[in-house]
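Researcher: We are triaging several targets before committing to wet-lab work. For this one, the compound of interest is adenosine-5'-triphosphate. I'm pasting the protein sequence and the ligand SMILES. What I need is the predicted three-dimensional arrangement of the protein with the ligand bound, expressed as structure tokens, so it can go straight into our comparison scripts without reformatting.
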Amino acid sequence: MSAPHPRDKRTPDGRGVPDGTRAPDGTPALLDVRELTVRHTGHGRRALPVLAVDRVSFAVQPGETLALVGESGSGKTSSAMAVLMLRRPESGSVRFLGRELTTLDEPELRTLRPALQPVFQDPYGSLSPRLRVRDAIAEPLRVQGRWDPLTGPARVAELLELVGLDAPLASRLPHELSGGQCQRVGIARALACEPKLLVLDEPVSALDPSVRAGVMNLLTELQKDLGIGQLLISHDLALVRHVAHRVAVMRRGRIVESGTVEEVYAAPAHPYTRELLSAVSHAPPNS
Ligand SMILES: Nc1ncnc2c1ncn2[C@@H]1O[C@H](COP(=O)(O)OP(=O)(O)OP(=O)(O)O)[C@@H](O)[C@H]1O
């Protein structure tokens, strides 16, 4: 048997240990996920349950982007949905802002949800077709009871500017926007809640390649300015290399390797990571 790679932090049973659960100064992580297991009940009479996520551990610090990468079906979205508590995990722990989310009921979760915001893949599907941009951005504030008719419109204008959209767009409906503009509105909605963590599930993969970099750069800039943590789900390893700080590689519901982007891309320890990365270096630009 070959000697273990120096960066191989896996336990002998191959389950892996939490990576980055503490900041260099010792403060606990913003998000600390341990031994997360998600099982989907199959559809139909004879369908078998699917073990989508199998005892996965990872952590995100404030101001940091952790990317979960891996091929289709590896369990990335199931992990994200469990972190968001939109799908209850079968077992494991999800600590966010020091609270254990898995033991909270829905009213308790509601108080934490503003701090934990998703941005999904489909920019049009994430917005109500009947809400004008200004109302779409105001909606989360109204839902949280934080809408002030005196200051609210200025806050909406500020959020539009923050995501790089011109003020006249405020009166448009989603179908009058491009995909990139729509995704920026989705990001503004998420920011309205003043989140501590964004869960970005393939946030640019449905967009035209020409606008992807602009939206990703926006997310990176916002993170720098606002200190938001990001859990980025992506199958695009070229993009991850540019925007993430750390990366966890998922395969068949497990994390097979994790580390800083520099470490993993320069010297992948796991054969599966090497396979994924070799496809990137042969991919045409902008794919
Ligand atoms: N609602 C569901 N019901 C049953 N099985 C599901 C459900 N959602 C996902 N799965 C299964 O769970 C496994 C993990 O899927 P998941 O969507 O989490 O992976 P993924 O890495 O995000 O893939 P993709 O990149 O294609 O979205 C797959 O086998 C998938 O078929």
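Researcher: Any quick observations?
Model: DSSP finds nine helices and ten strands in the chain.
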